[in-house]
From TrEMBL:
Biological process, per Gene Ontology: RNA modification
Protein name: Putative pentatricopeptide
Regions crossing the membrane: none
UniProt cross-references to Pfam families, sorted A to Z: PPR
Keywords of the record: Repeat
Signal peptide: none
Originating organism: Rosa chinensis (China rose)
Molecular function terms, GO-annotated: RNA binding
Length: 120
């Protein structure tokens, strides 16, 4: 349901379903996490996104492909470019995703020098 709401641009319902799932004691899947993180991107709510990032770390889902990619995407699209790039230094995601997100950082006008200083 969380993913369905998010895919149909019903982001507040997506958040509500996610919250109800947590209250009921259900563990969210990586797909549910990815969906609510995407909602944070669309709504520009980086504070909720950071809370979701913390919860994903606590539950061991931050290094999952969909969750990790959406977290980095959220940070970059909300203007936190350094955090977006640093995310991949801390998380255990495949290198192809690192390359993709570095390209994303470049597209969002992060200077090459900043990227170079982060990784070298």
């Amino acid at each position: 349901m969380v993913t369905g709401f998010s895919q149909n641009l019903r982001f507040s319902e997506s958040f509500k379903a996610f919250s109800q799932m947590r209250i009921a004691g259900e563990s969210p899947t990586q797909f549910a996490f990815a969906s609510v993180i995407r909602a944070c991107v669309v709504l520009g709510s980086v504070e909720i996104g950071r809370q979701l990032h913390s919860l994903a770390l606590k539950l061991g889902l931050a290094c999952e492909l969909f969750v990790g990619s959406n977290l980095a995407d959220m940070y970059s699209k909300c203007g936190f470019m350094v955090e977006a790039c640093k995310f991949f230094m801390d998380e255990q995601l495949p290198s192809t995703h690192l390359e993709f997100q570095l390209g994303s950082c470049h597209r969002h006008k992060l200077l090459r020098l900043q990227i170079r200083n982060l990784f070298f």
